Amino acid sequence: MNSVVKLNSMEKLTIVKVGGKIVEESISLKKLLSDFSKIKGNKVLVHGGGRSATALASKLGIESEMVNGRRITNAEMLKVVTMVYGGLVNKQIVAELQAIHVNALGLTGADLNYMRSEKRPVLDVDYGYVGDVKEVNAEILVDLISKGVVPVLAPLTHDNNGNLLNTNADTIASEAAKALSGFFEVTLMYCFEKKGVLLNENDDDSVIEFLTQDLFDKYILDGIVKGGMIPKLENSFEALKAGVKQVVITRSDQIHLDAGTKMML
Amino acid sequence: MNSVVKLNSMEKLTIVKVGGKIVEESISLKKLLSDFSKIKGNKVLVHGGGRSATALASKLGIESEMVNGRRITNAEMLKVVTMVYGGLVNKQIVAELQAIHVNALGLTGADLNYMRSEKRPVLDVDYGYVGDVKEVNAEILVDLISKGVVPVLAPLTHDNNGNLLNTNADTIASEAAKALSGFFEVTLMYCFEKKGVLLNENDDDSVIEFLTQDLFDKYILDGIVKGGMIPKLENSFEALKAGVKQVVITRSDQIHLDAGTKMML
After folding, report:
1. Homologous superfamily assigned to A3-263
2. Which residues of A touch B149 (CB under 8 A)?
């Protein structure tokens, strides 16, 4: 078999990243997991949990400090996110997925050493115990997925030197997607508050169905895509260039539908 | 091959249960994990975390109520133990084991649905979200162990209906040991504060090296074994009768040594 045939015969894999209050409130989480279970074939779920972490920290008298949208993670805050991301949110999702016959397995980067990171160097900002991903052991995930297991990835990695590190869930999702694109035809799905990338920010139904690099560049020039959306979409194109087949920007209640903005090279 | 040969050719597996402050303090945990890593062959670690759970609950203004040595687990306390057992303690152990080249994977009963329980019926006491183990899917653990993975089991199970349940770590260890005894020659090791079962409670070095059912019965009559030790040892004999090869009662700093009290049928 030549490599083209091999590529064509690759199985599909959908990686869904969902954060925000959807995974932190009982009713919306149940709906999300029900929709997630309807996605056909191989799948992976990546979750956040920032609101719960902030709430727990607050109850414990630990101040939450954010810089550029990233959480400053001192030793106390690392314990909080380990408890909330690795325990509370991850295990509740796993238990609820099992109840609807999805064979979930909760993982941090330390588990099976599937994702290693290094503590972010201190430049202008000391983010504390925050990890930049350095290595994804994709074979470990492939082996699990090939057995019908659905990995549920918490936004925690480790430095393989005994330290857990806080790592942005979007990054976990894109790094996993890139590493798995050698084994699967990967769709990386990001859940936003809107139904997709909007042509008109005041019209929630003006979803851009397809977005290529050329269109993206044009939309930036036209001022249609702006602000914080630009780096998010740039990261998506990075993932596509690294082998991910498709990135979908959608709303969490649409993950099981053919909806949202589809980005391809 | 007849069944005797098959039994003789079974690989060994050591299941170590350790609780108390050993797993909750950084220095003693490092020593424990180093010793654990020296145990040859297949192994499983089962941990507690009660002191940390009590401490977190206290900081959050949640009262810890114990009846017969068991924690009453209301909805708020279930969140606390899910965070502490499934997150804080479990993930720190996994990260530190990875750092010393032990390929650890943290699991609650919900992960891969490896251990299912049912909420304890309310008789004299309502224990709340506490689970009695009903089913262990041993093959899942066997598959992992056969690949060199070291499962790290948190004292949490699930009812396969979306609910996590608090489950005593001793019970997790004995239920896993019994289920795995069909696949391995299992040694179940309980870490106590003493070096083993003592012939003379005032002499820490008077460790009983071997304990059979006959000797146990005799020691009870003689008043040598008494109090809370009796049900613990009775549970160990139950595990032996269910197929576990050997139960060892030892101190946590001796788990890698041929020490402690060995119980066999």
Report:
1. Acetylglutamate kinase-like (3.40.1160.10)
2. 112
What class, spelled out in words, does domain B11-263 have in CATH? Answer: alpha beta
| Among the listed residues B14, B44, B161, the one whose alpha carbon sits nearest the alpha carbon of residue B104 | B44
- Sequence-ordered strand ranges (E) for chain A: 12-18, 42-47, 66-67, 70-71, 104-107, 115-119, 131-136, 150-153, 156-158, 164-166, 185-192, 210-211, 246-251, 261-263
B83:A79 CB<8 A: no
By CA distance, what is B79's nearest residue in A? A88
Q: Which pLDDT belongs to residue A200?
A: 92
Tokens at B156, concatenated: 């949490």
Shortest CA distance from A33: residue in chain B:
B162
Tokens of A181: 């694109």
pLDDT at A19 over 80: yes
- pLDDT one-digit tens code per residue, B96-141: 999 999 999 999 999 999 999 999 999 999 999 999 999 999 999 9
Question: DSSP letter string over A222-256?
Answer: TTSS-TTHHHHHHHHHHHHHTT-SEEEEEEGGGTT
Enumerate chain B positions whose Cβ falls within 8 A of a Cβ in A. Answer: 56, 59-60, 79, 82-88, 90-92, 94-96, 98-99, 103-106, 108, 110-113, 149, 156, 158, 160-164
Which one is predicted more confidently, A136 or B232? A136
A chain contacts of residue B45, beta-carbon cutoff 8 Å: none
Give the residue extent of every domain in chain A: 3-263
User: Is there a contact between A167 and A128 (Cβ–Cβ < 8 Å)?
Assistant: no
Residue A150 to residues A41, A185, B35, Cα–Cα distance (Å): 10, 16, 33
Within A100-228, residue ranges assigned H as helices are 138-145, 169-180, 213-221
pLDDT in the model for residue B151: 98
The pTM assigned to this predicted structure is: 0.95
Chosen for mutation from A26, A89, A92 (greatest number of chain B CBs closer than 10 Å) is A92
ipTM of the complex: 0.94
